[in-house]
Amino acid sequence: MPHATQHADLATTAELDTALRGGPFHVALRAAIAARGLPLQRVKHHLSRRGVKVGVTSLSYWQQGARRPQRPESLRAVRALEEILQLPEESLIRLLAEADDHTALQRPATRTYRALVEATGVLQELLGDLDCSVDGGLHTLAHHERVRIGARRELAGRESHHIVRAHKDGVDRFIAVHHGDPGCVPQHMTVHALENCRTGRIRWHQDTGVLVAELLFDTRLRAGDTHLFRHGVDDGTADVSHEYARGFPLAGGQYALQVRFAGSELPARCHRFTQHSAAAPRSGRQGLALSGLHRSVHLVEPRVRAGIVGIGWQWE
Predict the structure, then answer these.
(1) What is residue 138's DSSP assignment?
(2) For the chain, how many helices (H) and strands (E)?
(3) CATH class as words, domain 113-314
(4) Of the four, 1, 12, 44, 199, which is 20 to 30 A from 254 by CA?
(5) CB neighbour burial string for 81-101, b if at least 16 within 10 angstroms, e if fewer
(6) With the CA atoms of 251, 80, 30 and 69 taken in that order, what torsion angle do they form, in degrees rounded to the nearest 10?
(7) For 158-177, what is each residue's pLDDT tens digit?
(8) CATH 2.60.40: which residues of the chain?
């Protein structure tokens, strides 16, 4: 009998390893719970001790594949489950993201989570090339962004109005980041310094569509000084656009995003979404009202959190 038990344990471990590598999420979760020998009531208890409330019914649905965790509280539970079940960090979250990735493949021209992860790494390299840190010595107090969708339904361009405060002496520039749609051509984009700044060095990465540009101030800010400036990017180099997202490496001030549609037809539906990180699944999906008169939709975040926020839309 000991040999039979040992073989069973090895089989369970092998099943878990296979599920963690290839998924899907519910199979990996079920295998992990089985490998640890925990009843769902005990799993719920461990989650409660970490301040996360999830019912036994929800856990059962998750491991059966009847439902998937999507709400912020549910995603917190998944991260806690990785710890409780002694799994590698991000292992279950990654499988959830891959499921979203598979769903995204059904929709044209939306970014998969892998593309966002790759873009995050590319952005760090481009910032390093410009010898710039993540925040550049500036805290964002407000960022108001206007995005233009052209007559071909393409991302035609955008304009940003920034209000920033220096948290160290000697700051004289800001690094603007633009992430074009799939298939874009960054070298054909144009950066415009519109107010209280001028354009410096520009770098881009073709495969991910990431462009970064220095916006130089006419003065060196001291710690505590504020600065207002505007810049824009003309794009129009990709095909039909279905969403616009802005990433925030750090928590900050107010963010407002307005998307205006210039073509003869308007999208059938619009929604907002958030992501904890580039590798996390999307959550916080909520319908947004589209103004037919002004041909625009918007969202306002009074105080942004680190992560990604954006607006998506569906064409008929």
Answers:
(1) E
(2) 7, 13
(3) mainly beta
(4) 199
(5) bbebbebeebbbbbbbbbbbb
(6) -40
(7) 999 999 999 999 999 999 99
(8) 113-314
Q: 161 CB contacts (<8 Å, ≥6 apart)?
A: 142, 143, 144, 145, 228, 229, 230
Half-sphere exposure of 266 (CA within 13 A, CB side): 14
Q: How wide is the angle at C-alpha 276 spanned by C-alphas 15 and 139, nearest 5°?
A: 150
Q: What is the pLDDT of residues 106-147, one digit of tens each?
A: 444 455 545 665 677 788 888 888 888 767 899 999 999 999
| Opening angle at CA 263, ends 184 and 229, nearest 5 | 60
Measured between alpha carbons, how far is 77 from 97 in angstroms, rounded to an integer? 15
Place of tokens 């000697």: 170
3-state secondary structure of 228: strand
Tokens 């491991």 correspond to what residue?
63
The one-character DSSP state at 281 is: P
